[in-house]
Amino acid sequence: MAEYRFGAASPDGRVESGHIQAESREDALRQLEERRLVVFQLEERSASAPNAGFRRTKVSHDDLVVLIRELATMANAGISLADALATLKDANAATPLYEPLERMVSAIRGGDGFSTALDKAKLALPVYVLAMVRAGEATSNLGMALGRAADQMDFDAKMRSQTREALVYPTILVGTGTVAILFIFSFVVPRFAGLLKGRMDSLPWISSLVLKLGMFFNAYFVQTLIGLVLVVVLFVTAIRNPKLKLRLLEMAAHMPILGDWIKSGETARWTNSLAMLLESKVAILSALELTSGAVRLGNTAAQLDKVRSEVNRGRRLSQAIEHQQLLEPTSLSMVRVGEQSGELGPMLHHVAQYWSNKNQSTQRRMVSLIEPASILLLGLVIGFVMVGVVLAMSTLSEVKL
Q: Total structural domains in the chain?
């Protein structure tokens, strides 16, 4: 039996919060639904939580998605924003969301609108979230706008997660290969070099190179290790720098296969973002401006800016996209169908799903090529070392002692 903390809305729109004993999360939801409550928050209460020595100070992306979804649920349930925010603030008293929610509550009580309060919360939200919220306020459909914003944030997180997962295996493979080669040069090769000390000039060039490299790594092993660690640290620091990370991404976008993977992910991201904004009743020019600001590749952002300029001059969206060569013919035909049927948002969702699937397919292809390429490279290096050692050993019988 566990204790769960809940936040819910009653049929008359009142906010209720408290604790409930249940065998599982599903059991807790069932009990609350039997009381005709609309649950927007349900967390298992940990006995050690109040006394925990560690407390996160940074709001994560997952925290933001959960917050937006909870606000969407409460808005759809007819709960006033002041009550919803006050309830969420109390429920997040021990989390990094407490201070931003407190700022939002103060702003709402001071007479600000929800979009202004959300802006004053100083949360690291994507630019399109505020645009969707403002559109939701203008159309009196804030709950739906918040739900779509959370969906887009989930989509962005999914694309980032796929990127990280694709890079894990190659990183491990390259790392272990580097360690293996370093071990061979530092400990295995020097043992053979000792047998031929002073005879290097009479050896084949391959053997001489291999043995000299082995002796160098053995003599400067600590320095080499420190150098490799520094290279890794500098690389990790560099990719955490937004500007340098963006530059590396744009360079990678021009490479075979890797470039196709990056570009397909960007296409899926901007089409999905544009679809969400249009479905949230954001004006098309504003939606295009926000979309261009949300993409990572500078070339794609510039093309979207040109699309916006062409649409502003009276061109249809599909014509502008075709002129900038942002989509292939199949996707363009779907955009045209959306324009003609008045269902541009849903059709762009289909385009985004198509490119998301293509991104995953390219990812699998890239990973499947990295494995044999890495093994081949590792085999060539080890083979080069072994040939050098064997040739060196074969000359022992020719050396006069």
A: 1
